Structure formats: structure tokens, C-alpha cells
Amino acid sequence: MQSLSGRKKNVVNKKMTIGEKLYLPAIIGGMFVTLKHFFGKSKTVKYPEVKRNFSENYRGLHVLKKDDTGAERCTACGLCALSCPAEAITMTAAERTKEDKGLYREEKYAAVYEINMLRCIFCGLCEEACPKQAIFLTSEEIAPANYDRGDFIFGKDKLVEKQHHPVGKIRGGGPYSKEHYHQHGKNKSIF
Amino acid sequence: MDIVLIEKSILVVIIFAISLGIAAYSTYFERKFAGFFQDRVGPNNAGPFGILQPLADGAKLFTKEEFIPTNANTFLFILGPSLAMLTACMTSAVIPWGGTLEVAGRTISLQVADLSVGILYVFGVVSLGVYGIMIGGWSSNNKYSLLGAIRAASQNISYEIAMGLSIIALLMVASDGTLSISNIVNFQINNYWLIVYQPLGFLIFMICSFAETNRTPFDLPECEAELVGGYHTEYSSMKLGLYLFAEYVNMFISSAVMATLYFGGYDVPFLADFEASLGHNLVTILGTLFFFGKIMLFIFFFMWVRWTIPRFRYDQLMKLGWQVLIPLSIINIVLTGLVLTFVK
Ligand code: SF4
Ligand code: SF4
């Protein structure tokens, strides 16, 4: 078959020459390879103290966005739940009362909004499906750990962003993605 | 007589402490170097540069749960690691760590026991080492441990032959009729180092040392991929610690033996010329320091090989031992004999 990547190599089971059978030249060659690395610069980051920047299309934990006035954008339309291949999202809709006007952008809002982080596969389809630009996988918190399975069901207390973040970089997405917002990494980088 | 005993006891304690200290810090440097070889930093949290890591490891191992399997033979289960550690430490007695010191009119040799059968003693003790592994693996009553132990035993037996044969060639060149190690060092002080006369013998000896210490590429007895943990699968806490530690002591001793037999031991070329200006004791101490330098280089080499070469397959290991190294060492003996007869 033709190789599409151009990197295909045929396996040949040829007899080893005497030089190869000795192994020693190959071993010495290998030892110099590792020695080069021994004196090379380490490529790791001292993790908890130093964090690397996330890549621009990194899909992290979900954030339910607020708009410029600080009102929640989500209108509980359920499209995200519908698009979710992992059945991770559930929500209960409610109607906005007069007093809550500043809290929610639309008349219908999500009273309960839960994502089961054990089911979620971080595909980002919810982000693409949302007509209100209300949900983004941009949280830069990593590696959530819990003792309880129940604690992996993230409610609005964990999902809704505390403060509105102003529109940042445009986040690259799939063909259907609208303008996406990127939360700038505040972390130090070693590079 | 008594004063000799006191001197020797002090020497024994010092050597014991040094070999344990070096073994402890070999674990640290092994991990550190593994990091460097793999473009990482290695342990760096316990103290500056992670220098307290061996202490932390020790404390961890001591405080872990002591576990003895129900169906294991308790006595042998405990005997295993003790024996491994004991035999690992015993070899250091016959290695000449340096020349002589002159203290208060007495000449003190920096070798605990100058046995006339020194090399034989080393071989005897080293081959006892496999009993620690055998007993531990067998008494655990676990198939993986048993397989690991069997591997260790067959591997050690196979490679000891080639090792012994390579030593015979060395003795043909250097011996004065005894097997004393200090004589071999003296030979190297008066002539060239034995690596010059016995390059092939050294190669064989070194490969066999790797096999005897169960280090990569010959670490089949504890091969994680097939045998869980090998012979120490069932061990926990400090008993496991002793096994791991014995491996490092063995590595240190093997390095010392290689440096002694093939690289002149405490001999430093031209150092004796400075004896008049530096004084006898200083020259001896410098020689000992150089000896430790050689040992460190060998230990580094052990680690370097470990993080470069993958493990052998078991049949390849046996093939290498029986079909390559043993014939090669016999050829080496014949060649040495021919050269000695016709050239000298
Ligand atoms: S990222 Fe994918 S799996 Fe996770 S909630 Fe969104 S749509 Fe579902
Ligand atoms: S997050 Fe978006 S898609 Fe999901 S319910 Fe809210 S508005 Fe609809």
C-alpha cells in the first residue's frame, strides 16, 4: 500500500553483519547518545512551583460565562446537553423574576446546571453548540481530585465564573465556532 | 597483638561506614543521573538539590508496614535479605583500600585482611550472595518470586564461570604464585596497569560483573515487565530496603574489585615520585582518594549503562553467557599463555 505520510518503512529481516552481532559498537554509540542528554538542558518544568502556559486551544474544565454587566449568559436551552456525546450535562430551567434581572441575561435561565466530570470527555462540543456563548472549556485549573464520585458532579457553584473576564484572544475552534474568548494564562512560564 | 586488633576494628568500622554511605548516596545519584540522562532534574525536593533524599527514602522504608505472607516460611523470609546484605558487605575485607599509613612508629596497612586466597574469597562471597536472593524468592511462596530467584541463580552461575576464567588469565600475568589481591596491586605498581595486558579479560570481567550485580542489562531477576517485582515481590518495608541496598553495596564492591584488578587499585602513576616531598602518609591518602575516584567512575559507568541499554531477553542472556563469554575467556587464557611463553 502506498504510504500517505511518506514515513513508511519496510521491515526487512536481513542477517546481521559480524560488526552488528558484536553489539559493542551499537552499545557504545547508544552510550554516547545518552551522554549527550546527560549534559543537555533538562526539558521539564518544576511543576507546582512553575507552570507552563496552556496552548490556545486547550480544552480544560468548563466555565459558565457572564456578560459584560456580570449577568449569566446561559439561557438553559439545553443544546449543550443535546450535543454532548457523553451525556454529561443536565440542567433545570427556571424563569427569571424581576429582582433577578441583573443576574441573568435572558428571561429563562438555568437554576441548576450540572456537568458530570467523570463522564465528560472534554470534546468541546458543548462549547460549539452553545448559541449564547455561555460555556467554554477554558478553565486553567488542572487535575481536579476528589475522594468521592459525587464530588465530580460540578454544579453552578463551581462552573460559573466568579468575575466576568473581558473579551480576550479569539479562541480557535471547529468550523462552526463563533468568536471564542480566551482567558489569558496568568501563570509564569519558564520559556 | 591487641593493638593490631584495635587498628583493624577501626578500619573495619570505617570501611563499613564508607561502603554504606556510598551505597546510600549511589541511590541518590542513580536517580539524579537517571534524570539527567532522560532530560529531567531528578529528585530535588528533600534538601538542596534533593541531597537528603536517601535519608527520606530510608525513613520511608523504615516506617512502612512490615508484611510477611501467611504461607511464607518466616525464618527464611527474614534470612533472605539479611544474607544478601551480609554477603554484600563481606567482600570489602580483602580489598586493599590504600598503601600503608605510618602512625606513631607503626605501619598500618589499609587492607583489613591480606588473604593469600584473596580472589578466591571474593568469588566465594559473591557467589554466596545469590543465596540471599534464592532464599528470599523461594520462601516467599510466590511464583513470581520463585521465577526471579531461579533466574538469578542460573544467571549468577553462568556468568561466574566466565568471570573466573577471565581472572585466571589475569593471574597468569600478574600472580606471584598466590591469589593475594595486594600482590596484584603491587604488580601493577611496578608494571603497567593490568588493563594494558588484559583488555579482553577486562571486557569479559566487566560484563560478568554487571550480571553478578543483577544490574541492567542483566536485571532479569527483578524484571518488572514479566515478574512483577522479581524475587522481592513479597517484600516490604526495610527488608525490601535491604535487598535494594545490597544491590548498591554490590555495585560499589564490584567497582572496587574492577578498579583493583584492572586499574591499579590505589596506584597512581608517578605519585610515588613525590613521596619525598609530600611525605609517606599524604601519598597514601592521595592514593586512596584516587582509588575512590576510580570506583566512582565505575559506579557512574554502571549507571550510565543502566540508563542506556535495555534488558536482554532471557535466552539471549544465557546464550551470551555460555556461547560467547565462556569460549571467549578460554581463548583469552590460551592467547595469554601463548604470549607469555613466546614473547617474554
Ligand atoms: S466537553 Fe463534550 S463531553 Fe464534556 S460536557 Fe461538553 S459536550 Fe459533553
Ligand atoms: S450553556 Fe449554552 S447551550 Fe447550554 S443550556 Fe446554556 S445557553 Fe444553552
* Class based on secondary structure composition and strand pairing of chain B: mainly alpha
Task: State the major sheet of chain B.
Answer: 2 strands, antiparallel
Biggest interface: A-B, 15 and 14 residues
Strand content bin of chain A: 15-25%
Poorly predicted spans of chain B: none
CATH class of chain A: Alpha Beta
Low-confidence stretches of chain A: 172-191
Number of strands of chain B: 2
Total domain units of chain B: 1
What's the number of domains of chain A?
Answer: 1
- Total beta strands of chain A: 7
Shape of chain A: elongated
Oligomer: heterodimer
**Overall outline of chain B:** globular
Per DSSP, what share of the residues of chain B sits in E-state strands of 2 or more residues?
under 5%
Radius of gyration of chain A: 25 Å
Q: What's the average pLDDT of chain A?
A: 79
Q: Judging by the overall fold, what is the CATH architecture of chain A?
A: 2-Layer Sandwich
- Give the N-terminus to C-terminus distance of chain A in angstroms: 43 Å
Give me the CATH fold name of chain A: Alpha-Beta Plaits
Describe the 3D structure.
Chain A is α+β, with helices and mostly antiparallel strands. The two termini of chain A are 43 Å apart. The model of chain A is unreliable at 172-191 (pLDDT under 50). Chain A has a single domain, classed as Alpha-Beta Plaits. In chain A, the strands form three sheets. Chain A has a three-stranded antiparallel sheet with strand order 2-3-5. In chain A, strands 1-4 form a two-stranded antiparallel ribbon. Chain A is built from five helices and seven strands, in the order ααβαββαββαββ. Chain B is mainly α and 344 residues long. Chain B has one domain (69-342). Chain B has 13 helices and two strands, in the order H-H-H-E-E-H-H-H-H-H-H-H-H-H-H. Chain B starts with a helix and ends with a helix. Bound molecules: iron/sulfur cluster (2 copies). One iron/sulfur cluster binds at residues 74-80, 91, 129-130, 132, 134-135 of chain A.
